[in-house]
Design brief:
Length: about 160
């Protein structure tokens, strides 16, 4: 289990929309985000999410040429820490994190981890709630995740 988890805005927003923001705390002990992400989130963050500033603003500014402000700040902060896990949903940001040798997962990865740890009994109810939002997930990804967790795939 990673000792530090750094969240981007999209994961926070999505868990907030489906009313499961607390799932992050139940799966991971130490969750951090940046002031930029907190601003993008535009809701009050729970006290268990710590806000930390990026020290190397020049590096963050460079990353902003490739991804948005929140993602750039989360990635820059991750580079300043020892072996963190990044929570990113955006494909471009995930590719950049991979190139920088950073570990990452996304909202669906957190839900999968919650099921593995026994924090939730089933992933389907959460996925169904996500599908009611504007978050895009391919039907193949949904069905693979359901099968992986021994839950019945959605009809195509």
């Amino acid at each position: 289990m990673p000792s530090i988890v750094i969240s981007d805005t999209s994961c926070l927003i999505l868990f907030h929309k489906i009313r499961h923001l607390n799932l992050l705390q139940e799966v991971y002990d130490n969750i951090i985000t940046t002031p930029e992400v907190a601003d993008e989130f535009s809701e009050n963050l729970p006290e268990w999410i710590r806000i930390e500033k990026v020290k190397d603003k020049k590096y963050q500014e460079f990353l902003e040429t490739q991804v948005d402000l929140g993602e750039a700040s989360a990635i820059a902060l991750a580079k300043e820490m020892d072996n963190p896990l990044l929570l990113l949903d955006d494909l471009k940001a995930r590719k950049l994190a991979g190139k920088l040798n950073l570990k990452y997962t996304g909202t669906l990865g957190v839900i999968n981890k919650a099921k593995q740890l026994g924090v939730i009994d089933a992933i389907r109810p959460l996925i169904e709630r996500i599908l009611l939002t504007d978050f895009r997930i391919s039907e193949n990804v949904v069905n693979e995740l359901l099968k992986l967790n021994n839950e019945i795939a959605r009809p195509q």
